[in-house]
Amino acid sequence: MTDRRSLGSAGEEAVDRWARSVGWRVVARNWRCRAGELDLVALDGETLVVVEVKVRSLRSSEPAEWSVQASKVRRIFRALTEFLAAHPEHAERPCRVDLVALTVDRSGRIVRWSHFPGSITDDGGTE
């Protein structure tokens, strides 16, 4: 599983399964607009949750959670704004943006899973 795109897709699929297993209702996956892409959008009760999924291999020099740059955060929030405009049924819900960071071995098996609820904030950074 060396191809970056297939690695990311596999990670997003794993997060989708996890979200459903904890009772979240997934409303969109890989939602694209001019501003960018939202990896996963789900309802955690009444809260709309955007999940940014980052996957890195064990060979990577930095953990996956370090790879969310300020420019990516700005794109996520612009895309969230467009998502809410396109889906007004969610516009009044409380929202949060989570990060799920995965590290995988050479075979693509997840060896580290970290969920950071509400860690991506609209001030341009991560908490």
Number of H/I helices: 2
What is the domain total for the residues?
1
Which fold name fills CATH's third level, the topology?
Trna Endonuclease, Chain: A, domain 1
Mean pLDDT: 89
Quickly name the level 1 CATH class. Alpha Beta
Elements, N to C (H/E): HEEEHEEEE
Structural class designation: alpha+beta
The assembly state of the depicted protein chains is single chain
Extract low-pLDDT stretches: none
The proportion of residues forming helix, as a percent range, comes to 25-40%
Q: Which descriptor suits the 3D outline?
A: globular
Largest sheet, order of strands side by side?
1-2-3-4-5
Biggest β-sheet: count, sense, barrel? 5 strands, mixed
Question: What is the percentage of strand-forming residues?
Answer: 35-45%
How would you describe this structure to a colleague?
- 28% of the residues lie in helices and 39% in strands.
- It is of the alpha+beta class and 127 residues long.
- The chain has a single domain, classed as 3-Layer(aba) Sandwich (Trna Endonuclease, Chain: A, domain 1), CATH 3.40.1350.10.
- It has two helices and seven strands.
How do the helices and strands line up, and which of them pair or pack?
Blueprint (H helix, E strand, L loop, with lengths): L3 H18 L3 E9 L2 E9 L2 E11 L12 H17 L8 E10 L5 E7 L3 E2 L3 E2 L1
Parallel strand pairs: 3-4
Antiparallel strand pairs: 1-2, 2-3, 4-5, 6-7
